[in-house]
Amino acid sequence: MGAPVHGSGLRTDRPERSRRALVAGSVGNFIEWYEFGVYGYFATVIAARFFTPEGGSEVEALVKTYASFALAFFFRPVGTALFGRLGDRVGRRPVLIMVIVLMTAATTLIGVLPTYDTVGALAPWLLTFLRVLQGLSAGGEFGGAVSVMTEFAPPGRRGLYGSWQSFTVALGLLGGAGVAALLATVLSEGQLGDWGWRLPFLLTLPMGLGALWLRLRLDETPSFESLREEPLPERPPGREVAKAIALGAGRIMGWAAAGYTFLVVLPSYLQSSLNATFQQALVATVLANLGFAATIIPAGLLSDRIGRRPVMLTGALLVTVLAVPLLNLLQNTGTSNAVKGGAVFVAGAVVGLMAGPGPAMLSEMFPTSVRYTGLGLAYALSNAVFSGCAGLIITETIKRTGSVDIPAYYAAVTCAVSVLALLTLRKEPVQGGS
Hints:
Oligomer: single chain
Shape: globular
Mean pLDDT: 85
Distance between the termini: 19 Å
Helix content: over 70%
């Protein structure tokens, strides 16, 4: 199923409205992925504060921390189904306002939670509850943001506009890494563990208020306005939509798995498996995210010229081939720091080749009447399984097998499956405004 489920329904509008939609759609993604990045970067600290009762092991606590991480991802499809249905019925704008309020509130509250030392076993349950709320709101974010960006995109620029969703993901992860690195530099290890870890979560409050202001000024998309003018909007058969969702999830599973392996799980892996310091792990993560950010916009722009398939296939094939050699460079004690830095930069860059065209590719698979729900579910399901579980799967498998190559195998296998799914994507012509 390479073509969209009926007509794309994507239209264009005035440049100023398009730019406003691009900013308003992007800002929520930045906050969402800043928060998810911070949680991953501080996984070892959070494990010690919330999941380590007296006598518990550090590895066991880290596994529980990633289990909470994964749980939030599995609530993303639930949030997508709930908010996506609303977004396809009442509009993109009001739903995007709701999800940014929920995400900001839940993330800010994590910054004031009592730890295990204070309230005992209640602490991990409170943290997990807030992670569930974050998962619900994040589930409603992607479909709405991408719908807004692509439905406002000028002719021939859907790949470019959609790539800003992925680019703000990179900015969010970089922002989280930058804040974490700054705190690790200016605070002692004791201060970081006692109260410093709370600051990145509390920072989401002013960011969220700014995002809310932008979304309150957002117009409804022209595609949805046209849909509301129809007396009985046509909805494609449920089976056809379900097939498109499954295929879309398969096409981006490599992006989801490799992205979280290289961009989020990497710090904890370097610390727990390769004995890197917290600062060294964060530097490596910043370089990986810089590589990721560097290729996203060019990849989206290129996909408007030559099609989504060749660009995304290139990224998936490169990860499949390069994952193990790149990880081996990191494991080799004789490898210079410059070469290791280059390796993680390249790892992020090849993921960006999939992430750039990915949002537009998903958007073009669904008509306006089910776009928010359809592309959101494809993304949420793929991320729930292959991103949310990445840390849990990798950490637990390394613990059981003793193999430090597991992250590379995980990224390579999932990207190989995405190659097969992407081969079903027809080579679409250069986009007009259709």
